[in-house]
Write a structure and sequence with these properties.
It is built from 5 helices and 8 strands, in the order ββββαββααβαβα. Helix 4 (95-108) links the parallel strand 7 and strand 8. The protein has a single domain (2-132), classed as Transcription Regulator spoIIAA. The strands form 2 sheets. A 6-stranded mixed beta sheet has the order 1-2-3-5-7-8, sandwiched between helices. The chain has a two-stranded parallel sheet with strand order 4-6. The protein starts with 7 loop residues before the first strand and ends with a helix. The chain has helices at 37-50, 70-77, 79-82, 95-108, 120-132, and strands at residues 8-11, 15-21, 24-29, 34-35, 56-61, 67-68, 85-91, 114-117.
């Protein structure tokens, strides 16, 4: 998708943080990582840095195999953690990541609009709609 070539990116230990547009960030999880509370906090800080403090929507792209601790899911869903995040799309690729996504949405009940997708273009389209609503 030529419209979404990265503007800039940051590499963290467990995630690539990619600025696709001035207000659209992709958090691309690395293969086989387990995300803990401190990782979620580092990713959030990177998102705020890469967007220069602007409101933004985030596309979270799972790898084929990665996991998230219960506490990390709770933190990322909490109202205190939202700050400038407008919406979150979860891009999943297999049954395992769908289960993690479903747990996050149904059990942790994120404080911002959050949906799960298997198609990147649909996920980005939904995020763009949410950004326009702001």
């Amino acid at each position: 998708m030529s419209n979404y070539e990265p503007i800039t990116s940051m590499e963290l230990e467990k995630c690539h943080v990619i600025l696709l547009r001035e207000n659209l960030v992709e958090n691309k999880m690395k293969e086989g990582v387990h995300i803990e509370v401190q990782d979620v906090s580092l990713i959030k800080h990177a998102n705020k840095t890469i967007t220069a403090g602007r409101s933004y929507a985030v596309l979270v792209s799972s790898s084929d195999f990665n996991s998230v601790s219960d506490d990390a899911r709770k933190l990322s869903a909490s109202p205190e953690f939202v700050e400038r995040t407008v919406a979150k799309a979860l891009l999943v690729h297999n049954t395992a990541t769908k289960l993690v996504g479903n747990t996050y949405i149904l059990v942790n009940r994120p404080a911002i609009p959050t949906r799960m997708f298997t198609c990147r273009e649909e996920a980005i389209g939904w995020l763009e709609e949410k950004l326009k609503e702001q």
